[in-house]
Amino acid sequence: MYSHFDSNVWVTPFGLIFLGAIATAWLLARRNATLINIDGSHVDLLIPITIIVGIAGGTLLSLVMPMDQMIAGELMQTGVRVRLFGMLATGTVALFVYSRMGKLSFRSLLDVFALPTLAGLMVHRIGCFLAGCCWGDIVSNEHATSFASQVQTLPFLGGWSNGVQYPPGSLPYEQHVAMGLIEPNALASLPVHPVQLYEGALLFIVLLALWRFPWRRFEKGALTILVVCTYALIRFFIEYLRADGSVVLGNLTVTQLQCLLLLVSAVLLPGLLLLGKRQRVI
Hints:
Elements: H1 13-35, H2 40-64, H3 84-101, H4 106-131, H5 148-151, H6 171-178, H7 195-210, H8 222-238, E1 247-249, E2 252-253, H9 254-281
Antiparallel strand pairs: 1-2
Helix pairs in contact: 1-2, 1-4, 2-3, 4-7, 4-8, 7-8, 8-9
């Protein structure tokens, strides 16, 4: 996500959809809380707390990782970017602190918010599509450049989609101008993959598949681990079609490295916790 709104515009489609995403997650989390006998007022407090702390954390991560602000090498710099994984990580820390203060099960709270968070992100991606942030690779393979690994990672998919074009002033347009792919007076950007909608569609499928998952019958935290692994896999592969991330290691972006870290952590952490319990018993 990028902070790129005109200071004179107080109401935007992106902002309205962002509020809709929050409301979606809020209502669904409240529903989940009642299913395990947690008072809904805890959700009412946690939603604004985790969002505020999460945005602060996501912004801080962007500030300490300046290389991640580059979306066209050194040709173009964006403003402050709110990193999604940084936002989720610091929001989780706030959730943990609240659970200790409120004497609630941290893992139960994670399960309460797991699927609602995916639902909110699904709605949010529509706003990203309309705003032009989190945009995709160029569709045509006729514009090979030295930045092909960043804006045209999978050229063989060029004929799969007609793509969408963004107007002057949008981030995709500015990137294409900075790379010399279009003239500064062009009427629109090159056609790009609507990856925001691709991700939203995949999240919708995941929600349909997991919504009936009997998470209350399993160990606390099991649903959260499943959701984290599923989203990390989706985001890792969808990142190949996104053009807003700087390639930092081989052909991988910062986000893809974070996805790999999430997958390893989600797989190893339950085993380590179980091992710790066994040692305490012995």
